[in-house]
């Protein structure tokens, strides 16, 4: 089972043997000489918490500015009514700033506090 996991990680380019590594694949005794590392060009995924994937069904995705989000909220009662007894959930990502200029810390703290009041899962992170 461990061998399969390492094989899959290497095949997926999540790990690679170092130059000083023992040979992989190998037997249990040779495994002590194997050293692995993320590839030099490895870019880790975002450190934001993973939101569970939708279990099944239909999905939709869009980037909404505040006005479009307000329109969605205004239409929410109709959406909930139309869904009736079918499970319905919304997933939300929040982006503050565009990276072109630094956002001042007071603004970040203020918006972060307001978001956390809605849900502890809503936290601004860099």
Description:
It is built from four helices and two strands, in the order αβαβαα. With 126 residues, it is mainly alpha-helical. The protein folds into two domains: 2-37, no CATH class; 66-118, no CATH class. The protein has a two-stranded antiparallel sheet with strand order 1-2. The two termini are 36 Å apart. The model has no long low-confidence stretch (mean pLDDT 84).
Main sheet: strands, sense, barrel: 2 strands, antiparallel
What is the count of helical runs? 4
Stretches with pLDDT under 50, minimum 5 residues: none
Strand content: under 5%
Domain tally: 2
* End-to-end Cα distance: 36 Å
Query: Mean pLDDT, rounded to whole units?
Result: 84
Q: What is the SS-derived class?
A: mainly alpha
Q: Write down how many β-strands occur, each being a DSSP E stretch of 2 or more residues.
A: 2
The run of helices and strands is HEHEHH
Shape designation: elongated
Estimated helix fraction: 25-40%
Radius of gyration: 23 Å
Record the strand order, biggest sheet: 1-2
């Amino acid at each position: 089972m461990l061998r399969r996991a390492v094989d899959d990680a290497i095949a997926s380019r999540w790990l690679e043997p170092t130059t000083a590594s023992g040979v992989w694949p190998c037997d249990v005794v040779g495994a002590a000489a194997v050293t692995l590392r993320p590839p030099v060009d490895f870019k880790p995924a975002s450190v934001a918490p993973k939101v569970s994937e939708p279990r099944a069904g239909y999905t939709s995705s869009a980037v909404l500015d505040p006005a479009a989000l307000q329109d969605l909220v205004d239409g929410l009662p109709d959406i909930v009514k139309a869904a009736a007894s079918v499970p319905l959930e919304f997933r939300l990502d929040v982006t503050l700033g565009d990276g072109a200029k630094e956002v001042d810390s007071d603004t970040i703290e203020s918006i972060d506090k307001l978001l956390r009041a809605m849900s502890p899962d809503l936290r601004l992170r860099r």
